[in-house]
């Protein structure tokens, strides 16, 4: 008995003894490994697992429940008082939940099956199908019997993964071709400004060189240090003068002789022009006057929509707003916003950023690797995410940074640099008229003014009287007006204000044939059949741009629904 008691003593004292390096735990919270596994297995069983799958030694172990004091309590009173904010879901372009196609990622075909050697880079770790027969059993049914890509170009690059595959696939899953069509389009590249794999890798490794930008930024840094030294010297001189004035009020025995001090002559503030010598390089000229400009619409201003508007008479098109930092990181989704179709004869890209270094480097990157006719700075974006960083409308209140950005981008670009602004940030505080004379000195080639402030958004009509006064200030630099152009009468009134051209945004979304109405000065009572033809063209352009596989079809549907939320009006 004594021996048995002696053996049990260490076990009973184990929970009370404090071991060095271990935290002391109350006995009610202690458990064993078997009890923990039993608790996990019991939860698994309650979720639908079979009893046979539970280990034998864990079936009889009771789960250790959490003490009553530690269980989370639901604040029922607060839950009852809180009501869902329905207002945040109203309006347009809200972040609505996106439903992904069911089990889409599980039914994809590995691209290695189309290679000559059919070797997959991922080997046994690849999650996609390598057997075309097995893939065809799980693939969703075709949504049509005609493939636009096959009928137009004679070949569908998506082969059996196309959602119209039966139109160009043999019973043994071979892809058919139309030799005459393939030969007709051989070597033609309809879309430009794609991101190459080599450039993407170089951007991610940060091995891309920016010689022109580095030269400008070094000069900018040198100027900043010089200004700091001058400010310090001026401050020291001011302090010395105060000491002299104090000394002059003291007795003569304590006076200090300051007659021999040399005066510090100031030369005024230094600008970039004083330090940076602009190279006498002739830039590409673009005639913006009396043109119809399709606004760079985020989400809806995609390449297929721009093709539709070009067909109806849009003169100038611009890509969707692209973040300069994302472009410098080589993000494929951001570079897709720079793509240009061959029908876009006057095309520009719009950049968003808030610092001179990133914007200047991004401008040099675009200048060297893309084909664009102009580059636009978006200083009119009202989104909080952009504004709080100092970009978008925030640039209008940061004139020093704005100047450095414009001068730097102008220095590295071979194409014109344009700016898009609003009347101001606050509703009744217009500041655009103060910036426009500065833009002329900084080298801006064209200005676009949206006749609303950031706070107004779209709640009130655009102020075309203010746009008219700004157009006079901007001359001879062209200024485009933007806001509330929904018919050809609105366009005629806008041209009477003295603007050089008109930018159209929501009017083009509601009715893309507005460009034809303005050019022909008439109302077009378009029929339902013609509207369906427009949507059919958009869907075909979308399948050509995003692809005719499941991913491309879903993207085309998504952007069509975004557009229809405007067009239905």
Condensed summary:
This protein is of the alpha/beta class. The chain is 40% helix and 8% strand. The strands form two sheets. The chain has an eight-stranded parallel sheet.
CATH class membership of the largest domain? Alpha Beta
Identify the quaternary structure here.
single chain
Radius of gyration, in Å, reads 34 Å
- Strand line-up in the sheet with most strands: 2-10-9-8-7-6-5-3
pLDDT < 50 runs, ≥5 residues: 1-16, 49-55, 57-67, 69-81, 250-267
Biggest beta sheet attributes: 8 strands, parallel
CATH-level-2 architecture of the largest domain: Alpha-Beta Barrel
- In total, the number of domains comes to 3
Q: Specify the structural class.
A: alpha/beta
Describe, in plain words, how this protein is organized in 3D.
It is an enzyme of class 1 (oxidoreductase). Keywords: Flavoprotein, FMN, Metal-binding, mRNA processing, NAD, NADP, Oxidoreductase, Repeat, tRNA processing, Zinc, Zinc-finger. The chain has 569 residues and is α/β, with parallel strands linked by helices. It folds into three domains: 45 residues, no CATH class; 92 residues, no CATH class; 276 residues, Aldolase class I (TIM Barrel). The chain contains 22 helices and ten strands. The strands form two sheets. It has an eight-stranded parallel sheet. Helix 18 packs across helix 20 and helix 21 runs antiparallel to helix 22. The radius of gyration is 34 Å and the shape is globular. It starts with a helix and ends with a helix. The N terminus is likely disordered.
């Amino acid at each position: 008995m004594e021996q048995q008691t002696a053996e049990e003593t260490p076990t009973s004292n184990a929970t009370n003894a404090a071991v060095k390096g271990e935290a002391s735990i109350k006995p009610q919270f202690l458990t064993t490994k078997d009890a923990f596994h039993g608790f996990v297995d019991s939860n698994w069983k309650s979720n639908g697992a079979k009893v046979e799958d539970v280990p034998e030694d864990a079936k009889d172990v009771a789960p250790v429940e959490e003490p009553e004091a530690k269980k989370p309590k639901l604040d029922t009173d607060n839950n009852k008082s809180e009501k869902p904010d329905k207002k945040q879901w109203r309006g347009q372009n809200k972040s609505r939940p996106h439903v992904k196609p069911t089990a889409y990622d599980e039914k994809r075909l590995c691209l290695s099956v189309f290679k000559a050697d059919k070797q997959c880079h991922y080997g046994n770790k690849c999650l996609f199908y390598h057997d075309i027969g097995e893939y065809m059993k799980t693939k969703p049914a075709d949504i049509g019997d005609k493939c636009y890509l096959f009928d137009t170009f004679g070949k569908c690059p998506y082969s059996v993964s196309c959602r119209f595959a039966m139109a160009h696939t043999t019973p043994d899953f071979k892809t058919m071709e139309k030799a005459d069509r393939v030969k007709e389009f051989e070597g033609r590249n309809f879309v430009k400004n794609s991101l190459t794999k080599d450039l993407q890798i170089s951007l991610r490794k940060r091995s891309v060189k920016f010689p022109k930008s580095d030269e400008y930024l070094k000069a900018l840094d040198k100027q900043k240090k010089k200004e700091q030294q001058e400010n310090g010297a001026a401050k020291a001189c001011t302090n010395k003068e105060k000491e002299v004035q104090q000394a002059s009020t003291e007795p003569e025995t304590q006076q200090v002789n300051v007659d021999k001090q040399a005066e510090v002559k100031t030369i005024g503030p230094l600008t970039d022009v004083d330090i940076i010598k602009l190279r006498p390089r002739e830039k590409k000229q673009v005639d913006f006057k009396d043109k119809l400009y399709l606004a760079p619409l985020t989400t809806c201003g995609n390449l297929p929509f721009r093709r539709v508007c070009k067909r109806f008479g849009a003169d100038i098109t611009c890509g969707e707003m692209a973040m300069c930092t994302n472009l410098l990181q080589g993000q494929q989704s951001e570079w897709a916003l720079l793509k240009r179709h061959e029908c876009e004869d006057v095309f520009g890209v719009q950049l968003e950023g808030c610092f001179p270094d990133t914007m200047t480097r991004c401008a040099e990157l675009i200048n060297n690797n893309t084909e664009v006719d102009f580059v636009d700075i978006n200083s009119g974006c009202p989104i909080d995410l952009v504004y709080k960083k100092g970009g978008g409308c925030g640039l209008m209140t940061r004139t020093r940074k704005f100047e450095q950005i414009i001068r730097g981008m102008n220095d590295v670009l071979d194409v014109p640099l344009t700016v898009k602004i609003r009347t101001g940030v606050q509703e009744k505080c217009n500041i655009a008229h103060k910036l426009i004379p500065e833009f002329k000195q900084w080298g801006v080639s064209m200005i676009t003014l949206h006749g609303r402030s950031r706070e107004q958004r779209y709640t009130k009509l655009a102020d075309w009287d203010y746009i008219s006064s700004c157009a006079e200030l901007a001359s001879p630099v062209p200024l485009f007006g933007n806001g509330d152009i929904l018919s050809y009468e609105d366009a005629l009134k806008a041209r009477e204000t003295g603007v050089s051209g008109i930018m159209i945004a929501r009017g083009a979304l509601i009715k893309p044939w507005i460009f034809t109405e303005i050019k022909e000065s008439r109302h077009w009572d378009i029929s339902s059949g013609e509207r369906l033809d427009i949507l059919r063209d958009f869907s075909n352009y979308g399948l050509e741009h995003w692809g005719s596989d499941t991913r491309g079809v879903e993207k085309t549907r998504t952007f069509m629904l975004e557009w229809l939320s405007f067009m239905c009006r």
